[in-house]
Design goal:
The structure holds two protein chains of two kinds. By secondary structure, chain A is an all-alpha fold. Chain A has one domain. The relative contact order of chain A is 0.03. Chain B has one domain. Chain B is globular, with a radius of gyration of 21 Å. The chains are: A mainly alpha, B mainly alpha. At the A-B interface, helix 1 of A face strand 2, helix 2, helix 3, helix 4 and helix 7 of B.
């Protein structure tokens, strides 16, 4: 009686197959798929984060390099400009000095020439003035040779003074 | 004494509750209480599976955690034994594990009154037909354990052929040396037989002991024994059955 096989055997088979298909659909297949997807998505997220981190580090390095080169370039440009300005300054100053010197020399020459001119003019005028004054003073014996020599001597003395 | 004997016999043996007539023939398919309890267990498992996986989200919460723990447990058990073909076998082995766990410990839930008491309580005629119906483990019926064992060995055969192809599967009979052929063939008889009888014997023995204890010391004492004979032994046998089946599968598939 205890070991009697019967339709319960078939029933159990049918029941188990039914339970298997229902649980596979409802529980095992579904949840396993779900957990696999989650594992995949978490792995993807981590990978993406790693990649983003690496990209960011690379970008940072690139930008730092750029910044450094920009700084170098800027200082180079400033140095260049400064030396150029200095050169320009020096040359302007030198030109100005040269110009001023030329003007000064010219002015001095002019003044010398004017002075000579004026002196010779004044010499002539003083001679005639002295002559006139002397002729007024001595009136009559103006044409004697000794008087004439006296006048010339006087003029020379005046010219030398 | 004979009264006790008939009572014990009644509890021990499956008995027909009703039968389904097959159309156009005189044959009627009998339905025993084993099958009815199986249906109740299936309904409970499916109901729980439905409730626990109704709302799935990428970030598991509450009930989903529990369902995932169960599935993960089964998957890991099968992964350890079978290797990387585990996906093929995990759903079936998980189904058997859940079914056996609930089946073996089902007598713990036997707090509901039996048919006789229900009839007195409700005066509903339907209970009059099943005066001694109770939740008894279906695995104390040899039909159930035999079916489970034969399905397990079918899983081993089908899985082996599916994974290794027919030629590879046939070759494993000559493994490790051709002399082993008769023993390898015998394996396919001994394995299901041992699976079937181990489960049947353990559960039936535990069930009979528990029935005797219920008869001898009715009110409090059975609870303590129930923890061992119903709960612990039941869980252990369920685990052993599934673990051995997965080992057999792993042996062939690996």
């Amino acid at each position: 009686m205890l070991l009697k096989f019967g339709p319960t055997f078939i029933w159990t088979f049918v029941n188990l197959m039914l339970l298997y298909f229902l649980l596979k659909k409802l529980l095992f297949g579904r949840l396993t798929l779900y957990m696999d997807n989650r594992t995949k998505s978490i792995k993807e997220s981590i990978d993406n984060a790693e990649k983003a981190k690496a990209d960011a580090a690379e970008l940072k390095k690139k930008y730092e390099d750029q910044l450094r080169s920009a700084k170098d370039e800027a200082s180079k440009i400033i140095d260049e400009a400064r030396s150029k300005a200095n050169k320009e300054y020096d040359s302007i100053i030198a030109d100005a000095k040269k110009d001023a010197e030329g003007v000064l020399v010219k002015a001095r020459e002019e003044i010398e020439r004017e002075r000579d001119q004026m002196l010779s003019d004044i010499k002539g005028q003083v001679a005639s003035l002295a002559l006139a004054a002397a002729s007024k003073v001595v009136e009559a014996n103006m044409d004697t040779a000794s008087n004439r020599a006296l006048v010339d001597k006087f003029i020379d003395e005046a010219g030398a003074a | 004494m004979s009264d006790l004997n008939t009572e014990l016999n009644h509890a021990m043996l499956p008995h027909e509750m009703f039968s389904i007539p097959v159309p156009f023939t005189d044959y009627k398919i009998p339905v025993t209480d084993t099958v009815v309890v199986t249906w109740i267990i299936m309904a409970v498992i499916i109901l729980f599976a439905y409730i626990f996986t109704k709302k799935l989200s990428m970030v598991p919460q509450g009930k989903q955690n529990f369902a995932e723990v169960v599935v993960e447990l089964v998957n890991n058990l099968v992964k350890d034994a079978v290797g990387h073909h585990w996906r093929l076998f995990a759903p079936y082995l998980g189904t058997v594990l859940l079914f056996l766990i609930v089946s073996n410990i089902v007598s713990i839930f036997n707090i509901i009154p039996n048919g006789e008491q229900l009839h007195k309580l409700t005066h509903m005629e339907i209970f009059e037909h099943f005066p001694n119906f109770a939740l008894r483990p279906p695995t104390k019926d040899i039909n159930v354990t035999a079916c489970l064992a034969i399905m397990s060995i079918l899983l081993v055969v089908i899985g082996g052929i599916r994974v290794k192809r027919l030629s590879g599967w046939l070759k494993h009979f000559l493994h490790p040396i051709p002399v082993m052929l008769p023993f390898n063939i015998l394996d396919y008889v001994i394995k299901p037989l041992s699976l079937c009888l181990r489960l049947f014997g353990n559960i039936l023995a535990a069930f009979i002991i528990m029935e005797l204890i219920y008869m001898a010391f009715p009110p409090v004492v059975p609870a303590a024994f129930s923890i061992y004979f119903d709960l612990f032994d039941g869980l252990l046998q369920a685990y052993i059955f599934v673990f051995l089946t997965s080992l057999y599968v792993g042996e062939v598939v690996e």
